[in-house]
Write a structure and sequence with these properties.
Strand 7, helix 4 (154-159) and strand 8 (172-176) form a beta-alpha-beta unit. The protein is globular, with a radius of gyration of 17 Å. The strands form two sheets. Strands 1, 2, 3, 4, 5, 6, 7, 8 and 11 form a nine-stranded mixed sheet that branches. A two-stranded antiparallel ribbon has the order 9-10. The chain has a single domain (5-250), classed as Rossmann fold. The chain has 256 residues and is an alpha/beta fold. Helices cover 28% and strands 21% of the residues. The longest helix is centred in the middle third of the chain and has 19 residues, at 119-137. It has seven helices and eleven strands.
């Protein structure tokens, strides 16, 4: 049966392209398992971190998607896009590449544990790069499932600046926090400088904004509960059932 719905996973860490961790294992396994159900066309987008071995994983730049301008308030940055496939699985992974934001040691903090002072900018650049790349692909997802703090602004962008876009007007959003938020809090001045509508969520951390703007939140196993949001099972088959049921409910295909 042909896939009936488009599903985009947006993740900060994706094994095997980045180091293994319980959270990365969740983001690595779920897209493959959900796609295996047959009713979703699945794609993945993530940052092109400096520790990714591009030769080993056969990343190659997609010229038609690269050199895209991304507005960052009064300045404009440029994103390059690379692509690879998950080994032995028909899954496309798109990497948002920017030397200044992603080519550094550490994902959210330096070697001594100090959080990078531009994490909010990095998250915003990543989120806007994802939206720009989707427009170039002319691929409008039915559901966007964002994982972790660096993806925390995707639900906000979908519900504010891109809410009336023909490509995203009916897109539903799901957010899963990573439990490792760098505590970058977005104040009113940041939102104004970066032209980012936060709709009353100024002063919130990136994951808090993701939860506030998403249509649904589902928490990783063992993480702190959020306002009664459901928690993923530790069992891979069970959490696939959870995810598919949630997506189908959001798309109106099964009773809530």
């Amino acid at each position: 049966m042909a896939a009936s719905n488009r599903l985009l996973y947006v993740a900060g860490a994706l094994f095997p392209f980045t180091e293994r961790s319980p959270f990365a294992s969740l983001t690595r396994s779920l897209p493959e398992q959900v796609q295996g159900r047959g009713n979703f066309e699945v794609r993945i987008m993530m940052p092109c971190y400096g520790d990714i071995d591009e030769r080993k994983h056969n990343l190659h730049e997609v010229i038609r998607l690269s050199d895209t301008e991304v507005p960052m308030g009064t300045k404009t940055e440029t994103v390059s896009v690379k692509v690879a496939s998950v080994p032995d699985v028909q899954l496309q992974v798109y990497f948002m590449d920017h030397d200044g934001y992603f080519d550094r040691n550490g994902y959210a903090a330096n070697a001594d544990g100090t959080a990078f002072d531009d994490n909010a900018d990095r998250a915003l650049f990543f989120g806007r790069s994802v939206m720009k790349t989707l427009r170039k692909l002319r691929w409008g997802p039915d559901v966007v499932h964002s994982f972790g703090w660096i993806s925390g602004l995707l639900p906000s962008l979908l519900s504010t600046t891109d809410a009336n876009d023909d490509l995203f007007g009916s897109t539903k959003s799901v957010f899963t926090p990573s439990g490792q938020d760098p505590e970058a809090r977005l104040g009113a001045s940041f939102a104004e400088r970066r032209s980012l509508p936060l709709d009353g969520n100024t002063g919130s951390a990136l994951s808090e904004i993701g939860h506030a703007h998403a249509d649904a939140t589902i928490v990783p196993p063992g993480d702190a509960l959020i306002d009664g949001a459901p928690t993923f099972s530790e069992n891979a088959e069970a959490r696939t059932d959870q995810a598919v049921t949630l997506y189908d409910q959001m798309l109106g295909e099964v009773p809530a």
